[in-house]
What we know:
The protein is an all-alpha fold. It is 80% helix and 0% strand. Helix 1 runs parallel beside helix 3 (55-82). The relative contact order is 0.22.
Amino acid sequence: MIQLALNAALFVPFGFLVPVLWRELRSWGTVTGAGFLTSLLIECIQLFAFRATDVDDLIMNTLGAFVGYVLAWIFLHGYWKKTQFGRPSMGPGLAVTMLVCLAVMIVIRMPVSAWIYSLF
């Protein structure tokens, strides 16, 4: 259970930051699909790194991206309607966004892990 919760928690920043930073990616389906594809890429890379892969990781990472999107929508949806925040084209900036999300996931991994382990 703890591992499943951690997988979901680590993709919440991804689901939150992608629609906040990119106006074109503000639909739940797009963010959830991007979370799924990113998680699938990670699982495929793990095959070549001789690490275990699991479909549960894929499902929970996708769920975490969806939860992040829901949180962004709850807190920022009204602001999205009023402003034109975001860049007009995705280009290389999307790769930078993905790297920022990955960096946030790496930074919060240990504190989130400790917090979830303390719950159980």
